[in-house]
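[step 3/7] inverse_fold.run input=structure_tokens len=734
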């Protein structure tokens, strides 16, 4: 940066010496004000009485930013040795420098400083030069410096300055204003002191910029925080009377009305309730019908819309002010179910209702309406529970079966038992191993445990060990440091570290490699990880859930899974039964998916015929719930589906069974191509066998959605054997 006004002369005798430690402490004190607005308010008003007592108009303009800037000048003059100071900021159009705060000005000087703005085009002064160029200026002799202009001399005619330092206030390259400080005694600023002062000015610029942003949004943020607290109290539940109190308390804080009341009617009982914040009156509705009917409350309740009457607006036809002299009114209707209607009424003597306040109050009222609904429903249920306790319990059991347990449907005894296990273990951080065939919904059970646990507000992270190669899986789980391997261009946080505080699901844990199993076991024992290429141990607080469709007992016996890890993860085993073993749930699930695809495909299928239900229950469902969902989707997407799904709508393999359909179809096709003359028996049998083999392999692939490993498991052979048979069948048939 260019240094103006410096020379090689020795410093004149002066007491001015910048104390860097004091400067740093001063910056800390100023920065601390950003987190302590109350102290800024005190500074602002103290500044007002001490410095700006020349007129009341200035007092009304004081702001949070002014308080910060006043504190800045206090630090400069009180701790750095300067005698006076001024801060000017540019207006929104970047055309004028406007004085915001001064220090050690007498009343006449202050009046002049605040009443005259410096225009960057019309006024040539040192202040405007700094604002236009963004460069600092120093004056050793503020009376005789040749750069002084006539404007500068007018500004300083009431006060003789010794030496002056002008610095721009800017964020990046954008100038927002200037700060000028000076001493009574003449002095020369050393290069080191100039660097310190420029650093100070840069920090001051950032603080003023951030403070301005905060001030612009402070009131909105304050209102939103009030709303958040109100919604939190409403969601905490309570009686209807408690909700009245909460609404009125926060409506007064947000809307700042002089009058507020809640009006409620119960059409079934013919009663009304009026609550004005001090007393509650419950009476017959007709006692208040005339007064309420002539106000805008009636209009709001009938239209179910907000009705506002600003001071300058004409009154809606047929309405009168509810309270004499309160001409600014607003009503928010409560959209409540059943036989109840209500409204929140606010009024002022004068002053309109800002739209942002209306929006926030509207959100408050909508949340309150939900709380009213919940409270009323709770009251109804409580009354019914006293006389119909056994029926309520039956209804609840039916609701659990129909609506599901954390998105899991099941009314069979096996599923109900698993639901109870989840409820018991969810609140503990015990490791859980979920075992079951592919398609049984192991991930859903893991998510149910997470939702019902004390970690539900934290992350749920899922990793499929079978889908990620072993070397890559290790870096995904543990993360790595920059340079740990060739492509590690920057540090990466591992998923275990990312899930800290939450729940981690390791799906298909049986596919984890043995070396990685050892490292993972050590992490479980120590409760910490070490990134690849790193040396620091990082503690992690994670609740682990594991799932697999493999027989880990068998894998331990074969040596492909560590025994010590197996017992570490199998603290609470949960075995999900296949769909074929819980026939009570098959029709329930089918009905659920029919309802889902009714919406998706715009159909109106009501359910299944009795014959279709029997067919679904008889089918073995090797793909479990996933296969059932896919079958229902395939059926529902057709155009010829009627009001009820019948056996004719179901796929052939579901109706006839896998083996019988494939075998019969293959025989018919083979016989249909027999030659008319002499038949080679052995060649024909071999050809039929090859075709059967190919169809069986293709059917297994179709059931497994193209997953060869899953198709091999379905047929009870290894993946290698499956690939060999598939290749051989394709080659021989062609």
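[step 3/7] decode complete -> sequence:
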């Amino acid at each position: 940066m260019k240094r103006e006004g410096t020379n090689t002369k020795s410093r004149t005798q002066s007491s001015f010496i910048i104390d860097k430690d004091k400067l740093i402490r001063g910056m800390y004190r100023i920065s601390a004000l950003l987190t302590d607005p109350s102290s800024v308010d005190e500074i602002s008003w103290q500044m007002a009485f001490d410095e700006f007592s020349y007129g009341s108009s200035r007092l009304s303009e004081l702001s949070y930013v002014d308080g910060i800037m006043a504190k800045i000048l206090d630090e400069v003059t009180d701790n750095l040795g300067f005698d006076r100071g001024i801060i000017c900021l540019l207006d929104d159009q970047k055309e004028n420098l406007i004085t915001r705060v001064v220090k050690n000005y007498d009343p006449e000087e202050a009046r002049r400083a605040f009443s005259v703005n410096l225009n960057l085009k019309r006024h040539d002064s040192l202040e405007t030069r700094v604002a236009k160029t963004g460069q600092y200026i120093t004056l050793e002799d503020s009376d005789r410096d040749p750069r002084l202009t006539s404007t500068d001399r007018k500004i300083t005619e009431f006060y003789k300055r010794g030496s002056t330092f002008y610095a721009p206030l800017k964020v990046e390259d954008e100038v927002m204003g200037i700060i000028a400080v000076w001493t009574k005694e003449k002095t020369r600023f050393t290069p080191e002191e100039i660097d310190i002062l420029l650093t100070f000015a840069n920090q001051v610029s950032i603080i003023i910029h951030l403070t301005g942003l905060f001030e612009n949004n402070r009131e909105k943020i304050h209102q939103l925080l009030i709303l958040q607290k109100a919604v939190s109290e409403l969601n905490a539940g309570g009686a209807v009377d408690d909700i009245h109190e909460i609404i009125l308390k926060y409506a007064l804080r947000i809307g700042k009305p002089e009058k507020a009341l809640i009006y409620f009617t119960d059409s079934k009982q013919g009663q009304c309730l009026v609550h004005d914040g001090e007393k509650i009156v419950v009476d017959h509705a007709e006692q208040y019908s005339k007064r309420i009917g002539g106000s805008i409350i009636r209009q709001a309740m009938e239209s179910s819309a907000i009705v506002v009457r600003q001071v300058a607006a004409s009154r809606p036809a047929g309405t009168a002010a509810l309270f004499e002299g309160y001409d600014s009114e607003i009503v928010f209707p409560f959209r409540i179910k059943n036989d109840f209607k209500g409204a929140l009424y606010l009024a002022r003597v004068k002053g309109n209702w800002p739209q942002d306040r209306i929006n926030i109050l509207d959100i408050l009222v909508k949340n309150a309406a939900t709380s009213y609904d919940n409270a009323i429903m709770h009251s109804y249920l409580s009354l019914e529970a006293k006389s119909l306790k056994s029926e309520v319990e039956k209804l609840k059991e039916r609701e659990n079966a129909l609506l599901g347990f954390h998105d899991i449907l099941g009314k069979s005894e096996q599923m109900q038992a698993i639901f109870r296990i989840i409820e018991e273990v969810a609140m503990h951080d015990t490791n859980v191993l979920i075992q079951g065939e592919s398609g049984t919904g192991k991930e859903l059970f893991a998510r149910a445990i997470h939702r019902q646990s004390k970690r539900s507000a934290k992350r749920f992270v899922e990793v499929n060990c079978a889908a990620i190669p072993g070397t890559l899986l290790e870096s995904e789980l543990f993360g790595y440091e920059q340079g740990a391997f060739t492509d590690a261009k920057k540090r990466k946080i591992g998923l275990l570290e990312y899930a800290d505080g939450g729940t981690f699901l390791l799906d298909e844990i049986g596919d984890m490699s043995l070396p990685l199993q050892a490292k993972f076991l050590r992490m479980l024992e120590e409760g910490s990880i070490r990134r690849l290429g790193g040396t620091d141990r990082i503690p992690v607080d994670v609740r682990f859930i594991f799932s697999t469709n493999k027989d880990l007992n068998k894998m331990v016996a074969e040596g492909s899974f560590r025994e010590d890890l197996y017992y570490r993860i199998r603290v609470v085993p949960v075995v999900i039964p296949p769909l074929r073993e819980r026939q009570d749930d098959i029709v329930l699930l089918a009905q659920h998916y029919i309802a889902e695809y009714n919406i998706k495909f715009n159909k109106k299928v009501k359910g299944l015929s009795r014959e279709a239900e029997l067919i679904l229950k008889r089918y073995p469902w090797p793909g479990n719930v996933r296969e059932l969902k896919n079958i229902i989707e395939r059926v529902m997407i057709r155009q010829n589906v009627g009001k009820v799904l019948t056996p004719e709508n179901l796929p052939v393999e579901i109706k006839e069974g896998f083996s019988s359909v494939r075998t019969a179809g293959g025989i018919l096709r083979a016989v249909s191509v027999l030659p008319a003359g002499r038949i080679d028996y052995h060649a024909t049998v071999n050809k039929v066998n090859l075709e059967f083999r190919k169809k069986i392999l293709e059917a297994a692939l179709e059931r497994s959605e193209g997953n060869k490993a899953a198709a091999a498991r379905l047929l009870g052979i290894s993946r290698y054997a499956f690939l060999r048979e598939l290749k051989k069948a394709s080659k021989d048939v062609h």
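[step 4/7] annotate
The first strand starts at residue 84 and ends at 90.
The chain has a mean pLDDT of 79.
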